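REVIEWER CHECKLIST
Item 1: Sequence provided? yes
Item 2: Single chain? yes
Item 3: Sequence as submitted:
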Amino acid sequence: MLTSYAAHFDTPSGYLDFARFGPPSRDAVAATARAMEESARADHTTVDGLMRAEALARDTAARLVGTDSRHTVLLPNASTGLFHAALGIREGVVLAPRTDFPANHYPWRRAAGLGRATPRWLDPEPGGGVTADLVRAALTDDAVALSVSAVDFRTGFRADLAALREAVGPDRLLIVDAIQAFGVAAMDWDAADVVVAGGQKWLRAGWSTGFAALSDRALESLEPVLTGWTGVEDVGLFDGAEHPPAAGAQRWSITNLSPVTAAAFASALELVERYTVAAIETAVAERITGLTETVMAHGGRVLSPTDPALRAGILSFTMPDHDPAVVAKALHAEGVTPTVRADSLRFSPHASTPPEATERVAAALSSLQGARR
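Item 4: Structure as written out by the authors:
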């Protein structure tokens, strides 16, 4: 646990659901309130002043991903970025895992329905994820891209982005949904051509925050189908003509975003940059190790990779002979918040999660002894 980092949050100690939603810091809440208060007292300087938060958030996101502001654009969520990417591919096959979160399926299905890119579904091994060997076996001459999550939402499997880049080669696009990794897992983001992430989970920025980072290859090859009035050259010239798309990643802008959410996003990203991804990742890994040992000690079946090199901040598991809803009820009684699914449960701690959370989990699982499904 990063004590000084944790001091920025009011999240209950048993909250273990960051892979679903990350409660924002007091800093982000205060930034939101300030922006709203300023907007309520609007004068001739207010809008331009509030809009500066977007540039601040974009520049910080760019530094964290290892690129620059020309290659980075703020978006309201990860799905918007995935739709930009999917509709931007004119034709060809895109490899994508069948086991991925639905937000990574629908852009490719819609693109296929419009006669553009066609998905070819990959089937990772249970408990695993997309590997270089799996990709190589599926590659054909008509494959133009691979779309993959940096971290699998079900199991926490961590993709080897450098190996995936090597597998697809230099001429195909590597499109990465980073929402379950960015800010808490140090990964080879420069191996990807498109990195998209929403800020409402591990970045703890609240909803309607996110960004995309595009490589030169992506800027050259992806058609800017969804470019809006804020994504063009001479954006302030209202002459009734169609303007060409902006030269950089700004071409993925559709319209102005909320400067209020941009202020929250900038604050959240600054906190990550200040404490560093490496330190946050180490703290998360320590908590995952403790939770894994606790689940296994109480007879749980771990569905996530047990090798630290293959996992990030997600621990999925079942308790044999116990319905997940029953396990969840026991956890809730001890003040623990997991993700509950029909067939399993998921813990996802953060760097602010105290050791007390593991103790609460142990107490909850111990209470299940003698109870059955």
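Item 5: Key structural point noted by reviewer: The CA atoms of residues 329 and 364 lie 9 Å apart.
Item 6: Recommendation: ____
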